[in-house]
Design a protein that fits this description.
29% of the residues lie in helices and 23% in strands. Strand 13 and strand 14 form a beta hairpin. The longest helix is centred in the last third of the chain and has 22 residues.
Length: 534
Amino acid sequence: MRQFDYIVVGAGSAGCAVAGRLAEDGRTSVLLLEAGPADRNIWIHIPIGYGKTMFDPKNNWRFYSEPEPYLNGRKIYQPRGRTLGGSSSINGLVYIRGQAEDFDAWEALGNNGWGWSDILPYFKRSESNERGESEYHGGKGPLTVSDIRGRNELVEAFIGGAGELGIPRTDDFNGARQEGAGYFQLTTRNGLRCSAAKAYLPAPRARGNLVVETDAHATGVIFEGKRAVGVRYMRNGQLQEARANCEVVVSAGAFQSPQLLQVSGIGDADYLRTLGIRPLHNAPQVGKNLQDHLQSRLIYKCTKPITTNDQLRTLWGQARIGMRWIFRKEGPVAAGIQLGGMFARTGPQAKTPDVQFHFGTISADMTAGKPHDFSGFTVSVCNLRPTSRGEVKAVSSDARVAPAALFNYLATQEDENTMLAGFRLARSIAASRSMAPYVAEEYRPGPGVGSDAETLAFIRDYATTIFHPVGTCRMGEDTASVVDTRLRVRGVSGLRVVDASIMPLLLSGNTNAGAMVIGEKAADMMREDRRELQ
């Protein structure tokens, strides 16, 4: 059995960060296991390519939820990255940290060391923002964050419409205040995607003390008594094992981290027995507390042929946007289609923004689907802090069988009200003086959907995820939590969970940056704990 200081299961946003940081001293040996292939697919690296990887079975787990009872029994598609970089290799590249109040809320729940003042230094350490170092941004980190080149006529109209409603223009959603409308910054470097794998893995791999194995699906954590000492995994059709002299780190994401704990005997003991799994530690909260951002999309026909639909419709149009990328590192190829957005409050009850908008200069019947044959754009709205909760469960003792995930989207009145208010806000912007000249008609849901009851029915029929599942290995100071505030799995030793599954509450924004920061902080805590034992 090969031996390493640490074994990290899952090369996603957090897994790459924690593995890369643990190995940065050149002496600590780390094995990083990734169930998917190496990130060689060209569409991973070209920003607009996530339309290609969204349904690619080689680089995407392509999970589905269980039938959602409050979405008319629909199974909601759940893309998750299955390659080096995990979902940071197939996402929309938007760099959003969340709100300072999110992390302060974590701390208020008893998670000392996770407040905003504790976490901001890690965001800065991880980031190399092209604007340079500042009070809120880093300039020397491994993750490159870039501005979108140029200005877009439709995005400018959207920002103007928001301004008419009193929502200010902002040039930084990750600065002193999140609220406002503006252009996103993206995790790109010289016009190419900067995934967690590109950010954190090259240097330690070159030194040789970080070993990365792809196509290596972990099937269980190996225990001696109640101490984790290694990982069992399938690679090239053969069952292999590796030993961790210090710790095993599970970074498989909000679906597969709880699943790996469960198949390893950590979970609800009664339920594990129904799967033929011998319980090691009774932890009923494993898999619980599942949270996600639900989005509803409004699609508009545009009065002018200036949308990405128009650019992609002809070979000449495709050639033009290709040339813009090659020579100027700008345009849809360099930035994808989510150029701008907005964070806003739906009413006086919201002390901070409670809805997020993504503004896309393209339209399709589904996210990353075939563009419509008309000039179109999309306004997506999501509830930032849903109160609905779901659960992830292993359905087999075999970790290679996909787990079951039930989100219970829109289970609460609060979530219904916030989505309706966000919908009304989107329509108000579309009707503004700035936007109205560009709106030929509302294509979906259309003028026939007007009342709250009709709108809610539309949302239940069409809403989908915006791809931010978290919370299933909840961190807390209480003994019922899955991990403690140092991310150690309760009831056993030598085992931590390091990814978005530890989030007690969902961040108010995209979760990729937050997951990497969890990896950054975890590496520091693990080094500290190791020094204390020496």
